[in-house]
Design a protein that fits this description.
The protein is of the alpha/beta class and about 375 residues long. About 40% of the residues lie in helices and about 15% in strands. The structure holds 1,3-dihydroxyacetonephosphate (13P) and iron/sulfur cluster.
Length: about 375
């Protein structure tokens, strides 16, 4: 995604206090009623998530977004690719707003559509290699459309395994983009050995792979990652176990494979929240995911010990760009008839991307599925 420019807020918003922001957002919500639906991803800060009509992981929010046929506007408190998906999964009568346009995702930016097309062309030239392209939803609409065009699908961390299993009914190789870690963790959990996975580096000619390595691989992993989850290490796992062996380690599958191997459990944000909610009082949890989620879960379960796996703040800075002031500004503008920060996908891209998104939505289970269980 090109970096989108978010102009500074009008001066009237700069010095607003938390109480006034809350009062005014609540008043706007009452005024709009069901015409405006606010969706909030679990990584949003408390000052924003409390206004969400629905919260969830990427999969749940895609499902809920797709159901909002009665709303006039969806205000997406999350990042750009989530707002794009909501736009593509709803009709043209539902307008999607991202309160701060600079809330992107560095992982999504690691799969540029031109690089993806180049990789595809190269692979086609390597005698008979035609993988099934799978993209994590953390990707641009253009990459999703590419997958739709070439018989592939989207997935989230909640259903990556089901989608990769489906992909292997369609072909004998998978190209997994853009998160190499989610791809590796998922394929490994399915029993695919590490030596049958190769990393495609879009910065190097021919992905940095010989034709022989490409032919021998079952899974081609795009060289992308999440900078937040890349901060979790095996050393932190060792240290926490040394500190207190009663700690259970639960991590997001965007963490490196080595970390997931050391963890007791791995799954999406929804899976992490549900697991800790249902755990015994007195249980202890070290959590490898974004800090706002960890702090909120800790606050909601005072009878359990919940802390970050890392001793440092693992913060998604782009999710953090959505704050109460931007949310209030977007709602105020809407109330005066100005649609600001609309996220729109062109019709051709939407048509192709929806094919991949619908395959993703066809592989949903009632409960979030773990990538790894103890
Ligand atoms: P989930 O909420 O789907 O687990 O995804 C985490 C994430 O990084 C969203 O960008
Ligand atoms: Fe992107 Fe990582 Fe932030 Fe998720 S946590 S939005 S993958 S940068």
């Amino acid at each position: 995604m090109p970096i989108l420019f978010q102009p500074p807020l009008p001066p009237a918003y700069r010095d607003l206090g938390a109480e006034e922001i809350e009062r005014r957002i609540r008043a706007r919500k009452r005024e709009f009623g069901r015409r405006v639906v606010i969706l909030g991803h679990h990584y949003q800060q408390d000052e924003v998530i409390r206004f969400a009509d629905f919260t969830g992981d990427s999969l749940k929010l895609s499902q809920i977004g797709a159901q909002q046929t009665q709303a006039e506007h969806i205000v997406f408190c999350g990042v750009h690719f989530m707002a794009e998906s909501a736009d593509m999964l709803t009709g043209p009568e539902v307008k999607v707003i991202l309160p701060d346009l600079s809330a992107g995702c560095s992982m999504a930016d690691m799969a540029d559509i031109d690089d993806v097309e180049d990789a595809w062309d190269y692979l086609a030239g390597v005698g008979g290699v035609q993988p099934v392209p799978i993209t994590y939803v953390n990707s641009s609409a253009a990459v999703k459309a590419f997958c739709g065009r070439h018989g592939g699908a989207c997935c989230t961390s909640s259903n990556a395994r089901a989608i990769v299993e489906w992909a292997f009914t369609q072909g004998d190789k998978v190209l997994f983009m853009p998160d190499q870690h989610l791809g590796r963790n998922t394929a490994y959990a399915m029993g695919i050995p590490l030596d049958r996975m190769v990393v495609w580096d879009p910065q190097i000619v021919a992905g940095g792979l010989t034709a022989e390595r490409v032919r021998g691989a079952r899974v081609l992993l795009w060289k992308g990652h999440c900078s937040v989850h890349g901060l979790f290490t095996t050393r932190q796992c060792d240290e926490i176990r040394k500190l207190d062996p009663a700690f259970q380690i639960i991590v997001h599958p965007e963490c490196p494979w080595e970390v997931v191997q050391k963890a007791d459990l791995a799954g999406s944000t929804e899976f992490i929240i549900k697991t800790i909610r249902e755990a015994d009082p007195g249980s202890k949890w070290a959590v490898g995911t974004e800090v706002h989620l960890v702090n909120r879960v800790a606050k909601e379960h005072p009878n359990k010990t919940v802390r970050s796996l890392a001793g440092i703040q693992c913060l998604c800075t782009t999710m953090y760009r959505i704050d109460g002031k931007h949310l209030l500004w977007a709602l105020d503008e809407l109330a005066t008839g100005h649609l600001v920060n609309q996220v729109r996908v062109d019709e051709q891209t939407r048509r192709e991307a929806v094919v991949a998104l619908e395959r993703m939505l066809a592989h949903v289970t009632a409960q979030p599925v773990a990538i790894k269980r103890a």
